[in-house]
């Protein structure tokens, strides 16, 4: 449910941005998120976390997730805002649910953003569309030098008049007509495709299940697994900061390609390491007398258990079984025992390691390197650029709706991947699961090369022209010209 709750919010958020304006929608979302955080904190503090109340507050918070997509259209066309949102979300994500204080912690970014948003104006382009031209002109006068204000106002007015003439002045948007509009349809292919691939290359399996993945790599301790997963989350936050620096220097498309290239290599490394861990796990030997009463039933019932190793032990299910390593060396043969707290404590008291998810491996540290590389390559590119491209690629009239569609696609994909990962690893193994993510990453790389345009340095009008002229985009940069270029530089 925690993964599914932003889907509704993402779908509503796009409509709210068009209906009430970018600034108002963000303020409303911040208020809802802070309210949800306070209610959740209160519920946890009182040890009352009924399913209805918990899900309701999380749905409120889900609505907050969508407006970040529209920061760039707010005033000065700054793509760093989605990068900053990405950094904040990953900064707060790794905090474990230890007490009711977490609910209050989650409300801090929303309260801070609400306070800062009060100091910012509404989007001039949105104001023009609503007929509030004087307000829009006043805001543009504060953003641009006096010599360029009239040119910017005229260009903006002509662009909006053209949109109204082509699409009509009605506030209602016909989805069928939207999809029949060539520039919007091509923009949706690029925008929605990026959001879907962002999830299907496996990022949130790493973020949600990083302690489990660390244990699958051969680290038995829960504390060690949690600590290493927090380090991974830290690299994710750091990568988003790197994106803020490079996004306007390197360009969106180049950053995506570099990111996906690194992701493919990292996933290949992870797949190979987990295959090595699976095929070379310690063998199982006859249980010692001190553990005889706790021998795994599947193991004891087999007449010839010569082929049993740690991995086969962990797959036993009558009942669930775990592997108690050798006291002298965890890579030496160990015992296959019933998995429960009593047996786990008995194993630890004998100065042995207890494994219930993954098996001992001398290559576990290489898997950690693979996870770290995956995060380092993913977060500056695929972590932030899909949100930035989606804030730049649609005409203003359709930006709210299209942004909502893309965000909803992102969260639906997130739900599918997150809910299927553990079942996938159990069915085909961790190595094969990462291999599948690697293959999807290759497809994503091809998709970016063909369908995603480079929007660096381009005003909205030129992005529309570019989408109108062609479907496929092999170039890595586009150059604006004339007044538009001057306006963009300002």
From TrEMBL:
Residues 1-456 form the Major facilitator superfamily (MFS) profile domain. It is a multi-pass membrane protein. The keyword Transmembrane applies. InterPro entries: MFS_dom (IPR020846), MFS_sugar_transport-like (IPR005828), MFS_trans_sf (IPR036259), Myo-inositol_Transporter (IPR050814), Sugar/inositol_transpt (IPR003663). PROSITE patterns: MFS. Pfam families: Sugar_tr (PF00083). Keywords: Membrane, Transmembrane, Transmembrane helix, Transport. GO terms for molecular function: myo-inositol:proton symporter activity. The chain crosses the membrane at residues 25-48, 102-120, 187-210, 225-248, 255-274, 363-389, 401-422, 434-452. GO terms for cellular component: membrane. Its main location: membrane. It is found in: Membrane. SUPFAM superfamilies: MFS general substrate transporter (SSF103473). This is Major facilitator superfamily (MFS) profile domain-containing protein. The lineage of its organism: Eukaryota, Viridiplantae, Streptophyta, Embryophyta, Tracheophyta.
């Amino acid at each position: 449910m925690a993964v599914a709750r932003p889907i509704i919010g993402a779908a509503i958020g796009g409509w709210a941005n068009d209906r009430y304006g970018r600034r108002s929608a963000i303020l409303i979302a911040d208020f809802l998120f802070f309210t949800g955080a306070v209610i959740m904190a209160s519920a946890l503090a009182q040890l009352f976390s009924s399913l209805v109340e918990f899900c309701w507050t999380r749905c409120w918070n889900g609505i907050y997730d969508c407006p970040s997509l529209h920061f760039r259209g707010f005033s000065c066309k700054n793509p760093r805002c989605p990068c900053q949102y990405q950094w904040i979300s990953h900064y707060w994500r790794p905090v474990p649910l230890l007490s009711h204080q977490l609910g209050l912690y989650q409300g801090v970014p929303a309260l801070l953003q609400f306070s800062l948003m009060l100091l910012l104006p509404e989007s001039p382009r949105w104001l023009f569309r609503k007929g509030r031209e004087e307000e829009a002109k006043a805001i543009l006068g504060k953003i641009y030098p006096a010599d360029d204000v009239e040119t910017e106002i005229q260009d903006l007015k002509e662009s909006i008049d053209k949109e109204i003439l082509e699409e009509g002045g009605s506030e209602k948007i016909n989805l069928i007509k939207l999809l029949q509009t060539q520039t919007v349809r091509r923009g949706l292919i690029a925008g929605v495709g990026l959001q879907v691939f962002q999830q299907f290359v496996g990022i949130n399996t790493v973020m949600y299940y990083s302690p489990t993945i660390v244990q699958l790599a051969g680290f038995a301790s829960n504390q060690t697994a949690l600590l290493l997963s927090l380090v991974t989350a830290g690299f994710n936050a750091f990568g988003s900061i790197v994106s803020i620096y490079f996004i306007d220097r390197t360009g969106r498309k180049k950053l995506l390609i570099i990111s996906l290239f690194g992701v493919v290599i990292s996933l290949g490394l992870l797949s190979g390491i987990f295959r090595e861990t699976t095929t070379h796990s310690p063998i199982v030997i006859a249980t010692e007398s001190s553990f005889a009463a706790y021998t795994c039933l599947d193991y004891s019932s087999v007449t010839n258990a010569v082929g049993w190793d740690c991995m086969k032990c962990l797959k036993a299910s009558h009942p669930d079984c775990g592997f108690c390593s050798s006291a002298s060396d965890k890579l030496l043969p160990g015992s296959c025992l019933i998995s429960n707290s009593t047996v786990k404590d008995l194993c630890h008291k004998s100065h042995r390691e207890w494994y219930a998810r993954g098996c001992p491996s001398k290559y576990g540290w290489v898997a950690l390197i693979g996870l770290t590389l995956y995060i380092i390559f993913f977060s500056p590119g695929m972590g932030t650029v899909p949100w930035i491209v989606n804030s730049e690629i649609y005409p203003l009239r359709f930006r709210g709706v299209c942004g909502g569609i893309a965000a909803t696609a992102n969260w639906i994909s997130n739900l599918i991947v997150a809910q299927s990962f553990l079942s996938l690893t159990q069915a085909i193994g961790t190595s094969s699961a990462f291999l599948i993510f690697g293959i999807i990453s290759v497809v994503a790389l091809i998709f970016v090369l063909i369908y995603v345009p480079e929007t660096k340095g381009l005003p909205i009008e030129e992005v529309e022209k570019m989408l109108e002229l062609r479907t496929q985009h092999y170039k890595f940069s586009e150059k604006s010209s004339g007044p538009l270029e001057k306006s963009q530089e300002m």
